[in-house]
Amino acid sequence: MSEPALERLRQGPVLCDGAMGTMLYARAGASLMHGRCFDELTLTAPELVQQVHRQYILAGAEIVETNTFGANAAKLNAYGLADQARVINRRAAKLAYEARDIAGQSVFVAGAVGPSGQPVAPTARDDEPRLAALRAIFREQIEGLVEGGADLIILETFSSLTELRQAALAAREVGSLPIVAQMTFAEDGQSLSGETPAQAARALALLGVDVIGANCSVGPAGILDAVVEMAAALRKMGIDPERDVLLAAQPNAGLPTRVENRFLYVSTPAYFADYAQRFASAGVRLVGGCCGTTPEHIAAMRGAIGAYLPEQASAWAMPAVIAPAAPAETFPPEELTERTHLQEDLEAGRFVVSVELDPPKGLNPRKIMDGAARLREAGVRYINIADSPMARVRMSCLALARLLRDYLDLETIIHFTTRDRNLMAIQSDLLGAHALGSHNILALTGDPLRAGNYPNLTGVWDVDSVGLVRILKGMNEGHDAAGGSLGLPARFFIGAALNLNMEDRLIDVDQERARRKLALPGDVAHELLSEHGQMTETELELHRLRDKLDAGAQFIMTQPIYELAPLERFAERFGPVGAPIILGMIPLHSAKHAEYLHNEVPGMSIPEEVRARMREAGEQGREVGIALAREIITQARSRGLIQGCYLMPSYGRYDLVADLSRELLEG
After folding, report:
1. Domain that holds residue 374
2. 137-155 pLDDT, tens per residue?
3. 189, 270, 376, 439 - which has most CB atoms within 10 Å?
4. Which among 224, 292, 294 is positioned nearest to 263, based on CA atoms?
5. Helix/strand/coil (H, E, C) string of 354-380?
């Protein structure tokens, strides 16, 4: 399976960011950093780390590195943080991912991995226990980065080829992400352990890493000499450094000078811009900066290599000025009576495929729109849009739906929650959604606020999902919740959710009624509970589904499942549904991903057999995860249990579901 980051590198130069430590020190100051490491700021000052990421993205970087250069257990042990290595790396990757999301740019997140900090002598090559322990240190760090959503791994500033080899082997053990391996060389052109750039290039190429290069230690001139020597060595091996094993260069901003107890770097942004062109001319594909470089250096480099960059035009374009509204006569009321394409497809018995996209966390929707455009090219016609999922602030799902309709001609399924709106706001937003052409509505209660980034807020919940279905049905009959006329009947296509992963665990009816009254005042579906005694979670879910259907639900969307048994049990116990079922699916991409979903995400259950299969898959986890998703969907479809599916890509990896969508639609 192709990796987008590697494909982009093969197209032409990619600009990486600059120094993280330099920027953090400049902002945090000596007092904050005294006795602490930069990696710790990922947990203690995440907003500071994310601010640096955003600055580099705005400067034009296409790759941002996580704040994890020294975040391995061996180095963290000096600060009493060895047991936090995996947590720090996972969180650091998520911070970079969120910064990209807020910026709304198509940027890759690189997991940064530096040396262990433990001396490694060349003779250690024959000490397998020592090497295995070293490899385990790197593997733990890289696993955290992968779990956090890194798109590639950058091994950097290694002065020992022996140690770099163990880091590369660890990265391969963890998965199939692209690997960038960079050594650092002194002014004499050798590493501290005595290797030349040519020797390093030959060894790294034989290891199977994707990108090799040099970083840190010396300024642009010395790094250019090193990568030119590496390129020559690769060509002698019959390897094309612009196609097969690519080149990377991330120099320091010259040699540091000590001024008043601080080390300052002398190379200017203009000097770096000149060398950026030289790197691009030499065929270097990953160009960035190391110690002493700033967003100003990266911005200058971006301007300098513009002519070398491949065409990366966005798949959509937002006009600077919104066109004036069409005259009233071009908007006849009869247009509002048309059924949605989704409704037509389901009623005609056609199999539908939708892909769920989360709205951006910031002002720029470009990355989401580019992803949607690529999905459309794969044949996807429908996009599910979550409503501030996990109770975290995101762009309005209604606004994103309109953008998708206007600029990409994609029909959306809005996840509309009652958590954030009172009864009046619910109806106002629904009227607006209808007028804007968003008629497919999945009625949801919403994730609890304690799961989000504003845990002290109070949820509204004047109605729950059953009550929302009733409101939507009433609007389709031409009246609001109070019975007032809407002038015309709405044409909402109403969806309801179903959790297939409920257990046959008994719950106390009186306690459940009291809990629901406390949590969801107003029109709550606690009346479905019997007057006395107990019922199982499964019985409660089935009762709620019956209430939703009776209230007016017209299609059902399920939580993901990873074996057919839950869907078969549901069909046997519930009987004919009378509404099409669209199966949810999150394709797994690694064993860690499977364990996370199973153990930490409410409503998710992944059988041990599936998790074992993902463990056995190793670095082929993504391929196996896609195959598993295809198997479940195909089996459910062939048995007539579902009439569609909606795919939920993790970490914004639309490419992982685009091919699967095409296969399902063609099948």
Report:
1. 336-587+642-666
2. 999 999 999 999 999 999 9
3. 439
4. 292
5. EEEECCCCCCCCHHHHHHHHHHHHCCC
